[in-house]
Write a structure and sequence with these properties.
Pfam families: Glycos_transf_1 (PF00534). This protein is α/β, with parallel strands linked by helices and 336 residues long. Helices cover 40% and strands 17% of the residues.
Length: 336
C-alpha cells in the first residue's frame, strides 16, 4: 500500500517536517511504499533521517505532480496550503488533510475558512487532539474529523532526576513563542541558584537579552543557541522544569519530549494538544499565574516528581509505535 506525504516545504527545519519524516520512516519500516513530496525548494535543506527507506521528491511545478503521485493509496496533505495546492491532483488516492495547529489558533487566521471550505470534501480531516477534532466538527460542520497526535521519535530509558535548578525554554526565538513572558515569570518566581536556559535562535534574541536585563535576571537567563537534536536528551535530563509560554501551539514536540524524560511543564492553556499532555496549565497570557505555578514547582521537589511521573505516563501514548498503530487504524477506517 502506498502512502504519500505532501508538504509545502518538506526539508526545512520545522515541526511539521520532523513529524512527516518520522512517520514516513516508521510506515516504511512497516512495509508501506512511502513518498515525501516537497512543493517548494528549501534554501538550507535539513536531513531528518540518515538512511531513509522512503522516496523523497521536490515538485516545484504542478505538471510534475501527476507523474510522481501513485494511482492508488493514501495522500496525506500536511497543511491547508497543501490541500489547496493539490486540488485536482491524485484523484485516485484516498485524501487525508492534516492540520498541525489548534482550533484556537485557526479561528484567528485564514486557516479556519480554508479548512471549512476544503477539508469536508476529503476522505478524512485529521487534527492533533480529540478536543481539537470536536471543536472543528462543531464549529465548521466537518463530518469527517479524526484525532491523530504527533509521535515521539524515541522513547528514553532514562528520566531526569529533577534536581538541577534549571528551567528550559525550547524553540525559535520569535515573537509567537513569547519568551519575554517566560523571562518575566521566571524573574518573579525564582532566586539563585535557579537558571533559565533558552535553547534556540532567532530574530528576538537581542530584544530578549535586553528584557532579561530589565527584569534583573540577565546573569541567570542563559542563551544557549541552537542545540542539535541528538544532544537534546541530555538537556532534558539536566532540567527540572519546562516553560511553554507560546501564544499558540498545536501539539509541540518539545512538550512531548520533556514529558518522556519525566520533566513537568508549566504552560499556557492554548490548545487541546497542550492539554493532552497534562502539564501545569495557566490561563493564556496570565504571567502572574505562570510565575505562581513555576515558583510552586521550583519550591517542591516532591511535586516535581509527582507531576513528572504523571506526564511521562501520559506521554507513553505518543510513542511512535502507538501512533503508527493509530495511522493503520485510520487507513482501515477509510478503506472500509
Amino acid at each position: 500500500m502506498s502512502v504519500t506525504f505532501a508538504c509545502i516545504d518538506a526539508d526545512t527545519l520545522g515541526g511539521i517536517q520532523q513529524i512527516t519524516h518520522t512517520l514516513a520512516q516508521g510506515l516504511a519500516e512497516r512495509g508501506y511504499d512511502v513518498r515525501v513530496i516537497g512543493l517548494q525548494r528549501t534554501e538550507a535543506p535539513f536531513r531528518y533521517v540518515e538512511h531513509p527507506l522512503y522516496t523523497r521528491h521536490l515538485v516545484a511545478k504542478d505538471g510534475k505532480l501527476d507523474k510522481i503521485l501513485p494511482s492508488d493509496g493514501f495522500l496525506v496533505m500536511t497543511s491547508p496550503g497543501v490541500v489547496t495546492r493539490l486540488a485536482g491532483h491524485g484523484s485516485g488516492l484516498r485524501r487525508i488533510g492534516q492540520y498541525h495547529g489548534s482550533y484556537e489558533h485557526a479561528r484567528g487566521t485564514w486557516h479556519l475558512g480554508s479548512i471549512r471550505r476544503h477539508y469536508g470534501q476529503l476522505d478524512q480531516a485529521v487534527f492533533l487532539s480529540e478536543a481539537d477534532a470536536w471543536q472543528f466538527a462543531e464549529h465548521t460542520l466537518l463530518p469527517n474529523t479524526w484525532a491523530m497526535p504527533n509521535p515521539l521519535r524515541e522513547w528514553p530509558a532514562r528520566v531526569s532526576t529533577l534536581t538541577t535548578p534549571r528551567v528550559l525554554g525550547v524553540g525559535r526565538l520569535a515573537g509567537v513563542k513569547r519568551f519575554d513572558r517566560l523571562i518575566t515569570a521566571f524573574a518573579r518566581a525564582s532566586a539563585p541558584p535557579w537558571e533559565l536556559h533558552l535553547i534556540g535562535d532567532g530574530p528576538e534574541e537581542e530584544r530578549l537579552r535586553a528584557h532579561a536585563r530589565h527584569e534583573g535576571v540577565a546573569d541567570r537567563v542563559i542563551f544557549r543557541g541552537r542545540v542539535h537534536a541528538a544532544d537534546m536528551p541530555a538537556e532534558y535530563d539536566d532540567a527540572a522544569l519546562l516553560g511553554l509560554s507560546s501564544e499558540h501551539e498545536g501539539l509541540p514536540l518539545v512538550l512531548l519530549e520533556a514529558a518522556a524524560h519525566g520533566v513537568p511543564a508549566v504552560a499556557f492553556d492554548v490548545s487541546g494538544g497542550v492539554r493532552s499532555v497534562a502539564p501545569a496549565l495557566v490561563a493564556p497570557g496570565d504571567v502572574d499565574g505562570f510565575a505562581v505555578r513555576l515558583g510552586a514547582l521550583m519550591a517542591s521537589y516532591d511535586e516535581r516528581r509527582r507531576l513528572g511521573a504523571a506526564v511521562r505516563s501520559q506521554a507513553a501514548g505518543f510513542r511512535l509505535d502507538r501512533v503508527l498503530d493509530r495511522w493503520e487504524v485510520l487507513f482501515s477506517h477509510i478503506t472500509r
